[in-house]
Amino acid sequence: MAEVFFWCAALLLAHTYFLYPLILFVLDGGAQVVQNMRAMRGGAGAGRQVARRGGPKSSVSLVVAAYNEASCIQQKLENSLALQYPTEKFEVVIGSDGSSDGTDDIVRKCPDARVRLSPAPRAGKTTVLNRCIPMAKGDIVVLSDANTMIEPEAIERLVRHFDDPEVGAVCGKLKLYNPTKQDYEESAYWSYESLIKMYEGRRGAVVGANGGLYAIRRTLFTELPPSTIVDDFVIPLRILEKGYKVVYEEQAVAHEETTEDYGKEFGRRARIAAGNFQSLRMVPGLLLPTAGFPAFAFWSHKLLRWCAPALMGVALLANVFLLDSMFYRFTLFGQALFYALAYLGKTGVLKRGTSKRVASVAYYFVTMNLAIVVGFWRFLRNTQRAAWDRTARA
Q1: Strand order of the sheet with strand 167-177?
Q2: pLDDT (tens digit, 9 = 90+) per residue, 136-173?
Q3: Do residues 128 and 104 make contact, with C-beta atoms less than 8 angstroms apart?
Q4: Is the model's pLDDT at 46 over the cut of 50?
Q5: Which residues fall within 8 angstroms of residue 132, CB to CB, at 6 or more apart?
Q6: What's the rounded Cα separation, in Å, for the pair 72 and 94?
């Protein structure tokens, strides 16, 4: 029985972290072969070019939920108004969630008529989106954060995908940077996650968006429960559940600074984890096999990840009962070595080189899964509030 538990846990962990990405790579390679064969026969082109109607461009509203963002809202306004999109087709809506630090005054002083402020008492980001998205004038709504800076061409690159009527949402590429550490733990994991999103997008099934930059058809937005914690996860999933494609545009780039405060970063991840478990009741259709590939992606990329802490515990505990075999002694040693590296990554004993990077990634992986445990506990106790606090950055 211990052997069964060990292998079930090990295989599920292997699937969510390694086999699922490999399956995406194989499917993409197969699709590319089919496209090349069609091109040789005189059919559809082999490239992944986005179709363009050549007609008038869609109107766009950039919606930003802001809470006490006085330190960066001016820069966000300047960045938003410098984006390359026809002036008459573009607006910026700042939804202030009871800001008390002068954020609203800065927005009001902006002389550009394309900027609109929608202030209201503090009630959480979801309430801001429920208010601002329906009032947006654009057919396409681009959602972004106040501390996220968008590259000039990004809006056009997102919006061009909506020429395809089957596309309901487009996720942009978010690049994280740290002004004081060139190599930080999240960078490797974030690159890995972005790669998975890119390949999911080629199948029209990106499971969740980057909150810093993504776009939706305004007509597909449905009001969220005010208690919703991870809106940037639920909104694209609801669109996917309706049968529309959610794609990824790697050339639509935005930049966001990470935080040096590991305590606050852990709290942010625990908050996201609580929201992830909460989201299950909001997208029940994606839990069913009838949803096809989006359901497979949801289970493989998300649900099994959320179960990873339990699976890691089962694998370790089951391994303890299998020490009669040399093979299982080796697997237990491997697990112990991994957790030892995570501890070294926490202490910072290793100062440089490959060993330091490996230990840092191990520490990041362990703390990420601990945050899932904390988030699950908050979800069970219903103690995670929807209103968010901005993360302090350099």
Answers
A1: 115-120, 90-97, 60-66, 140-145, 213-217, 167-177, 245-257, 148-150
A2: 999 999 999 999 999 999 999 999 999 999 999 999 99
A3: no
A4: no
A5: 63, 65, 93, 95, 118
A6: 13
The pLDDT of residue 358 is 87
Neighbours of 281 (CB within 10 A): 9
Q: Which amino acid is at 288?
A: L
What's at 84, amino acid-wise?
A: Q
Give the whole-angstrom CA distance, residue 204 versus residue 183. Answer: 32
Distances (CA, A) of 239 to 100, 233, 250, 320: 34, 11, 20, 45
**pLDDT the model gives residue 347:** 85
Query: What whole-number distance in Å separates Cα of residue 100 and Cα of residue 262?
Result: 26
Residue 262 has pLDDT above 80, yes or no: no
Residues 298, 353: Cα–Cα separation, whole Å? 36
pLDDT digits (tens, 9 = 90+) for 18-28: 999 999 999 99
* 184 token code pair: 């930080």
Residue 350: pLDDT over 80: no
**Do residues 125 and 386 make contact, with C-beta atoms less than 8 angstroms apart?**
yes
Dist CA 166 CA 173 (whole Å): 21
Determine phi and psi for 347, rounding to 5 degrees: -75, -25
Going along the chain from its start, the domains and CATH numbers come out as: 60-299 (3.90.550.10), 305-381 (no CATH)
Confidence (pTM): 0.90
How many angstroms separate the CA atoms of 37 and 32, rounded? 9
